[in-house]
């Protein structure tokens, strides 16, 4: 059932064949329907999840308005680190944008998995570094790039984003109106012709 996750783990930490079976003991599968929440604000995040297939929108609500912080796709790890270690209430929502399957591990099981195999401790550190790097990239992008540059970067990473994600969420992520996004997208297309 967890073959996609096992293959991903093998790519990150070589020579893990023996330890891969532990995934069956510690991880759980969750299927989310479109618009279903994996996590809602004011809830404690007690898990780390791997997106096997689908997409998750990370957003918070400020002054009654949804603000999309990020969109995660297949083969991404998601959690809310501000909540995870201290069991504090979260301020983020994780919502499926399309039918999505995640493999998740609860914090308690993650601690036990680390104790059982040092290779997973190495893997966990590498994944935490990846999530931290992604947060830095997002912060840098928001502070230094114009929406058009951010859209081009998104299209490079996820060329089919417009086929998978509603335009209103992409616009929200870029910090522009859907109408402005249409104009930006048109300019990018015209430049490629």
How does this model look, in words?
The chain is of the alpha+beta class and 193 residues long. The strands form two sheets. A four-stranded antiparallel β-sheet has the order 1-8-3-6. The mean pLDDT is 89. It is built from eight helices and eight strands; from the N terminus they run H-H-E-E-E-E-E-E-E-E-H-H-H-H-H-H. The protein is globular and about 55 Å long. Strand 4 and strand 5 form a beta hairpin. Helix 3 packs across helix 4. Helix content is 47%, strand content 23%.
Can you describe this structure in just a few lines?
By secondary structure, the chain is an alpha+beta fold.
Topology:
Elements: H1 3-12, H2 22-26, E1 28-32, E2 37-39, E3 47-53, E4 55-62, E5 65-73, E6 77-78, E7 93-96, E8 100-106, H3 107-116, H4 118-144, H5 147-157, H6 161-164, H7 167-174, H8 178-192
Antiparallel strand pairs: 1-8, 2-7, 3-6, 3-8, 4-5, 4-7
The secondary-structure class comes to alpha+beta
Structural shape = globular
Q: Which ranges are low-confidence, i.e. pLDDT below 50, for 5 or more consecutive residues? A: none
Number of helices: 8
